[in-house]
Design a protein that fits this description.
The protein has about 300 residues and is an all-alpha fold. The protein has 16 helices and two strands. It has a single domain, classed as Orthogonal Bundle (Farnesyl Diphosphate Synthase), CATH 1.10.600.10. The chain has a two-stranded antiparallel ribbon with strand order 1-2.
Length: about 300
Amino acid sequence: MTTPDFQHWASAHQSRIEAQLQAVLPGAELAPRRLHQAMRYAALGGGKRVRPLLAFAAGEISRADPGRVAVAGAAVELIHAYSLVHDDLPCMDDDVLRRGKPTCHVEFDEATALLVGDALQSLAFQLLADFRLADDTTVQLEMVKLLAAAAGSRGMAGGQAIDLDAVGATLSLPELEFMHIHKTGALIRAATLLGARCGAALDPAELAQLDRFAKCIGLAFQVVDDVLDTDATTATLGKTAGKDAQHNKPTYVSVLGVAQARKLAEELRRDALATLDGFGARAMRLRQLADFIVLRKF
């Protein structure tokens, strides 16, 4: 179970990421003002910041400088924010509520929301070029490649394409897992590995263990999301509840039922925790995040 100490740690690092995003996003007064206002609207003041938290927690494994991890975490969060803006567009999921407030295209307009996503994505990669995140420049170049792959057609964007094609279809459990390894899991894995790469070099076996942890916890995150979409209210979630069922989209709940989906999430949590056995106390925050992700109510 998560502890009060974890809550304090998470809150402090969420604040740090918020400050980092505040600093790197263009000021709302800068031209083009409407675009910059919309970028800040989409990226600031909301969300659990799970991906940056995973980066910070993995950074503790490699004893990374938290300042470096904050930049890497902000880059991942900008990619995540862009994906939410685009996912909510009428041509995608057509949603009107995100993080408890009107979606970007509702608050501004569709064309602005499209440009917001484009600009947030490019800003993420600008951060990876502007800041020194690793002592070895080759490692930093690998970090850029890692985030690009996680966001692209073999990662998050590809998973979204599979998701759109699956509307109204019946997927097997392996097919559903394949979709979410890309749509949700790719960016969670990237966040974890980017945080770890900001510190001392880890050997390939250690990086593989962290990747396995992130793969398991990324799938668990999606399973819990699907359960909450069925069980929780719109007010609790900050987004429209029951949207997947309304759109006839395959989910872990539609494939397994609520009880079996909960069981799968717990199995994935146990698998994730088992991958951390060799890291000792350095993995405490990753263990706590695994608990938070699976046991959360929002």
